[in-house]
């Protein structure tokens, strides 16, 4: 990953941090509702974004933040799916874009590449492995 790509990704994430901080108490915004319903995860997300800006290498992008494209492998079926975690207004499930507020998006948020987790889905829990995380330049 080039220095300019790393820099542009950090800029996008810095903008997210600013937006999160401005809207955390606005109950009419998706970010405010996320804060009200899941304060612990919200604060962890903000804290990890803040820590991210002090790191210099591309290994910082081994964790799922908003804007990540994540490939998961269903361990029982060995099937794969790819999702891009986005803000609610950008969500388009038919295109694989899911909101960070959606049940799956929320569960993937802050997970690391290589982690295996049990996703809660309508049919119950299913074991998945996060096999890839990518960030695209905007």
UniProtKB/TrEMBL annotation:
Pfam families for this protein: GreA_GreB
SUPFAM superfamilies linked: FKBP-like
Segments forming domain Transcription elongation factor GreA/GreB C-terminal: 63-135
GO biological process, one term: DNA-templated transcription elongation
InterPro entries linked to this entry: GreA/GreB_C_sf, Tscrpt_elong_fac_GreA/B_C, Tscrpt_elong_fac_GreA/B_fam
Gene3D superfamilies documented for this protein: Transcription elongation factor, GreA/GreB, C-terminal domain (3.10.50.30)
GO function term, MF aspect, one: RNA polymerase binding
Domain of life: Bacteria
Protein name per Swiss-Prot or TrEMBL: Transcription elongation factor GreA/GreB C-terminal domain-containing protein
Species this chain originates from: Aeribacillus pallidus
Taxonomic lineage from the root: Bacteria, Bacillati, Bacillota, Bacilli, Bacillales
């Amino acid at each position: 990953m080039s220095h300019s790509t790393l820099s542009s990704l950090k800029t996008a994430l810095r903008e997210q941090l600013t937006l999160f901080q401005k809207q955390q108490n606005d109950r009419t915004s998706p970010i405010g509702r996320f804060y009200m319903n899941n304060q612990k995860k919200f604060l962890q997300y903000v804290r990890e974004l803040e820590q991210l800006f002090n790191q210099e290498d591309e290994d910082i992008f081994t964790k799922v933040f908003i804007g990540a494209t994540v490939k998961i492998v269903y361990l029982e079926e060995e099937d794969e799916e790819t999702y891009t975690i986005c803000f609610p207004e950008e969500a388009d499930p038919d295109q694989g874009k899911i909101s960070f507020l959606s049940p799956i998006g929320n569960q993937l948020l802050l997970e690391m590449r290589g982690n295996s987790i049990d996703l809660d889905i309508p049919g119950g829990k299913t074991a998945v492995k996060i096999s890839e995380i990518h960030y695209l330049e905007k």
